Amino acid sequence: MITFAGLCVQEIVQTYSDMLIRIAVQQTKSMSEAEDIVQEVYMTLMKQKKPFANESHLKAWLIKVTFNKCKDYFKSSRVKKTVPITEDMSFIAKEEQIVLAEIFELHPKERAIVYLHYYEGYTTAEIANLLEINVNTVGSKLRRARMKLKTILEEGSKV
């Protein structure tokens, strides 16, 4: 049996699939593409030769690879100009679905930072490391995203 950071592949899939799909959905706005991307992440994991120091290292690696696969998706010819958000997202809590539509209006890099900070609880330094960008850039993008979300939510509540 193949194990990574003390977990077998089945345990990894059960533990991290929902999180990875949420990341891919909020990046691609497509459930089917998100599922394909997560499958690619697991295929990449199976090819991984270097051991993981611990489970948090494995989680960070999975998140980083998911974001990279999403970037690859946007570079590929599979991308359509617009993707409707009409697919079944029942795996996401109703409260999250309400805010998710507003989050989709943010730039993909801002969405990634918002997701990692508020949904996964990462600090700005950890996000900077995961996304390989400057800590100050993470802080400014997070502030900008908060301001945009506040404006979007305020405009929505006035209607």
Automatic annotation (TrEMBL):
A Gene Ontology biological process term: DNA-templated transcription initiation
Domain HTH luxR-type, chain residue ranges per copy: 121-148
GO molecular function, one term: DNA binding
Keywords: Sigma factor, Transcription, Transcription regulation
Record-linked PROSITE patterns: HTH_LUXR_1 (PS00622)
Keyword presence, Iron-sulfur: no
InterPro entries reported for this sequence: RNA_pol_sigma-70-like, RNA_pol_sigma-70_dom, RNA_pol_sigma70_r2, RNA_pol_sigma70_r4_t2, RNA_pol_sigma_r2, RNA_pol_sigma_r3/r4-like, Tscrpt_reg_LuxR_C, WH-like_DNA-bd_sf
Stored Gene3D superfamilies: 1.10.1740.10, Winged helix-like DNA-binding domain superfamily/Winged helix DNA-binding domain
SUPFAM superfamilies: Sigma2 domain of RNA polymerase sigma factors, Sigma3 and sigma4 domains of RNA polymerase sigma factors
UniProt keyword Transcription regulation present: yes
Family: Belongs to the sigma-70 factor family. ECF subfamily.
NCBIfam families: sigma70-ECF
Protein name: RNA polymerase sigma factor
Source organism (scientific name): Lysinibacillus irui
